[in-house]
Design goal:
This protein is α+β, with helices and mostly antiparallel strands. It has one domain: q2cbj1_9rhob like domain (Jelly Rolls, Sandwich). It is built from five helices and nine strands, in the order H-E-H-E-H-E-E-E-E-H-H-E-E-E. The protein has a six-stranded antiparallel β-sheet. The chain is globular, with a radius of gyration of 18 Å. 41% of the residues are buried.
């Protein structure tokens, strides 16, 4: 019999033992109703206020096809801060390390995938995300990073939702997504499909969250509906992750020291 989620406070729930086991086995897990609906509605209203009713304000260049991003750094915000800390607690439980290692905040942002049929000329944010891993872009000396991907509305697969290759986190690092030319990770590693079944593109209700390891191979489809796909993303790392000396895709490495942990000011421990 499945364990019923317990409440952390009046609104947030903890992850269950079954969810932890599923994450460890498959490299990803779907946490139903992980963010309370009232908070999700507030996040959606905030996103529309900052990005426009259709999420198409300040669209990225055409080369960035995946979604329209808005970085938030919301740790100190009265709405986003508690949600980020909630993700930190969940990440520490899902990580399930015996060593007493916490969770370090990395970033948070809105990600709005535009409908493909409404793509604007010379602008991005309306395409799919092909099969890839996140780890190679992190400049980290170890895996263990996680992405908390929150649906801010109900989402069928046609919205361009996430898909995962089950158990692919156990096959090691398979390259940066920019190294596959016109193809994707599976063109370089087709044998992965012999071992790792696809989850298919998932269906979400508002407040559902998928969490995936930065080693898990994943993709997201094109949004073939008439409306934007609204998501809120929180990314975290193990607190003992150190800079590996390489360049990073999403942050400045100035001030970091080789083989030392990331700095607490930009990347505080939250769980």
């Amino acid at each position: 019999m499945a364990t019923q989620p317990t409440s952390i406070d009046d609104s947030f729930r903890a992850v269950t033992p079954e969810e932890i086991a599923s994450y460890q086995k498959f490299g990803w897990v779907k946490l139903n109703n992980f963010i309370p609906r009232a908070k999700v509605d507030e996040l959606l209203a905030m996103a529309k206020d900052r990005m426009g009713e259709n999420g198409d304000r300040d669209l990225p260049p055409e080369a960035f096809t995946y979604f329209n991003p808005l970085t938030l750094r919301g740790l100190k915000h009265p709405l986003m801060g508690p949600i980020i800390e909630h993700c930190g607690r969940g990440a520490r439980a899902l990580m399930a390390r015996r060593a007493r290692v916490g969770i370090r905040y990395f970033t948070d942002f809105f990600a709005v995938k535009q409908p493909a049929k409404k793509k604007q000329a010379d602008r991005g944010g309306a395409g799919g995300s092909d099969w890839h891993q996140d780890y190679a872009a992190s400049a980290s000396d170890r895996s263990g990073g996680m992405v908390f991907w929150t649906a801010l509305t109900d989402m069928p697969p046609e919205k361009g939702t996430m898909a995962f290759l089950n158990g692919s986190h156990r096959f090691g690092v398979m390259g940066h997504y920019a190294t596959y030319g016109e193809g994707n990770l599976l063109d370089s590693y087709p044998e992965l499909l012999d071992e790792c079944a696809s989850s298919g593109n998932l269906t979400y209700s508002a407040g559902d969250v998928t969490v995936h390891s930065n080693l898990t191979v994943h993709s997201a489809g094109t949004n073939v509906t008439d409306d934007p796909r609204w998501t809120y993303i929180v990314i975290v790392n193990p607190a003992d992750a150190c800079w590996n000396g390489g360049p990073a895709d999403a942050f400045q490495t100035d001030g970091l020291t080789l083989h030392k942990e990331l700095d607490d000011e930009r990347f505080p421990v939250i769980g």
